[in-house]
Amino acid sequence: MTNWNIACVLLDARDLLLLKGEKFLASIYEKSAYSVSALEFPLSSSYEIPLFLPQNIREDIREILNTGNFTLKGNLEKEVPKGMQVLLRLPGMYPENVAKLYTRADIDSVSDLSKAIRDGRIRKNREFGLRMEEQLRKSLLLYQNNTRELTLFDGYTYGNSIAALLKTKGVKRIEIAGSVRRGKEQVNNINFVVLSDGEKTKEIIKKSLSYKRIEKEVDDYISLKDKRNILLKFLIADEPYFSSAMIYYTGSKMHNIRIKEIGKAKGFECARRGYLLVQGEGEENVYEKLGMQYIPPEIREGEEEIDLSLRFSLPFLIQEEDIRGDLHVHTNFSDGMNSLREIKEESFFHKYEYVAITDHSSSLKIANGLSSKRLLKQMEFIDRINRERDFPVLLKGSEVEIHKDGSLDFGDEILSRLDFVVCALHSGFDSSAAENTAKIVSALSNKFVDVFAHPTGKMVDVRQGYAVNLSKVFEVAAKTGVAMEINLFPKRMDLSSGLVKQARRMGVKYFSVGTDAHNIGHLNMMGYGIKILRRAWLKKGDVVNTLNFKELKEFL
Ligand SMILES: [Zn+2]
Ligand SMILES: [Zn+2]
User: Fold this and answer.
1) Within this chain, do residues 523 and 396 fall inside the same structural domain, yes or no?
2) pTM higher than 0.90
3) Distance from residue 517's CA to the centre of ligand 2 (Å)
4) How many angstroms separate the CA atoms of 28 and 462, rounded?
């Protein structure tokens, strides 16, 4: 059992809890699941279960590891109506929508749902509407095609756990390729390149992984549909061509078409599987033999990167080592699981120079938002902890709610005393785009605001974002110098790389990256997040987190 498998059953429990309306407990399961996925070592025995997880979750994980069972999930499955559970299994289905469909429209099966869409009942119902119909149509289509999409975080952590498992089972070399390696936000399969060890390679793969069926098997390739309908594809390559196979299997399709043309013009042949027969260790080497500059996987889209590479003028993209701190972290003052001191210690191991503590503010009651009195108390604590040890410095911050009228939860007097002000909208899902845009614009015009958090408010698999005119938001951010956040919490990934590009085109100068960590395990999420920044072609200078402490103070 891999970490990802454990995380998946914890997330199943989250979904069932959401159907029961137990939002608070559901969020604890979600936070725990994400940190299990993001662990850097496999949980193979109950000794290794991180202590920062709540006691009940540690017991659940122990049970899952020792027995393969999960009592809580079993109980929830008995309690939650079967019809709801059937609907929930549709890919991309939001628990909130399942509950609505079940209780307000008596829909409790897939056939009921398709009929309701056909009859126009969803569209005509004021509570559902056209937007929801589109979402449901997409879910049905994915269901009928038997495919499931994963978020980048899931693809990345699942891919890593498979690679780690296969290595322990005797595979000599395995690398993640495909859209996960390119950092695409939604992926529908996970590609790997595996070093060939004769017939043994495929045997190890088949014996080590649990799957529903083999989709295709030939001498140098095998693909499996796993038990959750996720397609895993393995290209098996010989040593001299491993790197060339990596380029081919990372894609994208359009990138490959251009690479093949260039290779053929230089006289290289193609393998049956489609990759160029260019020998050499390391992709840099292969690109060089094609007369090209190495192209980072995240920007291989068959667009301008090819010509820039041929002219050796690709930009130098941001790297993980450039990040000097996490700029969105919660503690147990609001809805986080760890203390200020624990965050500071863990961040030290990440070699960070600073970490922004950005707990929620008072009007976000569900997340135990801080009143100004508690915020001032927290600021005192931070000063004290910062005096104990110099680095990393905890920045006194807040994730401040934007009110209906565009004002913020704290007045200027408090805001002026904070080092780092992140403003955010966690409501407004029933408001119009004009209303939401007006609130945000007014918040971004406050001179103390440094960052606008998760700008679209969308949550993958949970709900759509609020209605908002993003172009207007970007325009104002360009003018006021407020940074747009790239929030790495797995269900958010907000902004996406596509929207970062759009923001840059509209003149937005600064971006800020935060894991939105709610426990110390989430600090690891920076690793996968870098892909999103690189995919958006961001350079070191575009991202606030690359400033050193002194420069950051000047920026703020
Ligand atoms: Zn938030
Ligand atoms: Zn947050």
Assistant:
1) yes
2) yes
3) 7
4) 15
Crossing angle of helices 497-505/470-480, nearest 10°? Answer: 60
pLDDT at 465: 86
* CA separation for the pair 124, 107 (Å, rounded): 15
If asked whether residues 300 and 351 sit together in one domain, one would say: no
- Tell me, yes or no, whether 158 and 273 share the same domain: yes
pLDDT < 70 regions, the chain: 45-46
The pLDDT of residue 1 = 84
Q: Report the domain count for the chain.
A: 3
Assess whether 434 and 548 both reside in one domain. Answer: yes
Q: Are residues 107 and 159 in the same domain?
A: no
Q: Residue 85 burial (CB < 10 Å; 0-12/13-18/19+)?
A: middle
Nearest to 167 by CA among 221, 213, 209: 209
Q: How do 231-237 and 221-226 pair as beta strands? A: antiparallel
Are 155 and 259 part of one and the same domain? Answer: yes
Q: Residue 39 Cα, ligand 1 centroid: separation in angstroms? A: 23
Angle at 391 between CA 325 and CA 527, to 5 degrees: 30
330 and 379 share a domain?
A: yes
pLDDT of 159: 96
Domain end point (choices 249, 284, 310):
310
Q: How many C-beta atoms surround the C-beta of residue 217 within 10 A?
A: 13
In terms of Cα–Cα distance, which of 428, 416, 419, 480 is closest to 454?
A: 428
Q: Are the C-beta atoms of 476 and 509 separated by less than 8 Å?
A: no
Domain shared by 66 and 137, yes or no: yes
Domain region containing 114: 3-144
pLDDT at 46: 65
Q: Report CA(214)–ligand 1 centroid distance (Å).
A: 41
Which residues, by Cβ under 5 Å, contact ligand 1, an ion?
424
Nearest to 16 by CA among 24, 26, 8: 26
**Token pair recorded at residue 87:** 């609907």
